[in-house]
Amino acid sequence: MKFTTLLGVTAAGLVSSAAAATTTKMGVEQPSSTPIYMQPVVQGCFSSSGDLVFNSTQPFNSRGQCGQTVCQAIGKNVAASTEGSKCYCGDSYPPNSTLVDDKYCNAPCTGFGQDACGGTGYWTVYNTGLELYGVPYANDSSSSSSSSASSATSASTTVVGGQTVFVTQTNDADGTTKKSSTNTAGIAAGVVVGVVAVAAAVGAGFFIIRRRRNRAIEEEYRRNAAVNAFFSGGSGKAPSTTGSHSISDSRLDPVMSQRRLSDGSIADNEDYSRRILRVTNA
């Protein structure tokens, strides 16, 4: 009886152990927790890898293998596993908007099957322990894609109140239409300002040239006045130009000096300032 009882207890123990082994879940995502210095800690399940770069496929992948042995060793702050064996490294978490429920990361790690190493299209992200609180999240790709959306632009003209208005129409990628108009009044004002500026420059140039010419005329008049004053003996009056000679010799007879032509040659050694009596036969 004792032997039979012992066999029954042993069999029950083996059955319970086998049942416990079959109920152990594989590929369970570890909950997110506070980063720990120099230890890889799970930060969540993400549907995007963000700026993380694929490093290698690990046949015995695990949180410690990817987060510490691979990424921490090369100085990266963030690590991630996907599809059980693939390891990614980088310096920023994936976009915060791509954080999903832990149930989507359900692929057993190839080195430790109880833990999840991402899934198909999902990444289990770790903080490697090098930077605990300053690790940023990557920019959301949806915002960058929307900012880079192409648009088509067309232009047309119309007449409003006797003025031509240019209308620009922009069609965004999402179908939104934007219009902007440019009134010709602004363009005309700009043209008028330009013409006024050119006219002012031309007027200033003409004034400068005229002033220089007046100065030249005044300077020439001063020179002529100085020459005339010199020849007139300081009287300040210009010599007479009514005769054939502009300058009169003081030795000539006043009557003779008023004649246009000389009756004869004048001797330099004779004094003609007094009349000479001549005796003639009547």
From TrEMBL:
SMART domains xref list: WSC (SM00321)
Pfam families reported in the protein's UniProt record: WSC (PF01822)
The organism's place on the tree of life at top rank: Eukaryota
TM region positions: 187-209
Entry annotated with the keyword Signal: yes
InterPro entries: WSC_carb-bd
Domain WSC, first and last residues per copy: 39-129
Signal peptide per UniProt: 1-20
Keyword terms of this UniProt record: Membrane, Signal, Transmembrane, Transmembrane helix
Keyword Transmembrane helix on entry: yes
Name used for this protein in its record: WSC domain-containing protein
Protein source organism: Sporothrix stenoceras
